Amino acid sequence: MTEALKHAGWAHGVDVRIRWVNSERLAPETLDDELGGAAGILVPGGFGHRGIEGKILAAHYARTRGVPYLGLCLGLQCAVIEFARAVLGTEDANSTEFDMFTAHPVIDFMPDQREIETKGGTMRLGLYPARLSPGSKAMAAYGQEVVYERHRHRFEVNNRYRSLLEEHGMLLSGQSPDGRLVEIIELRDHPWFLASQFHPEFRSRPERPHPLFAGFVAAAIARAGVETGAPTTVPVA
Question: Is residue 34 among the annotated active site residues?
Answer without folding.
Answer: no
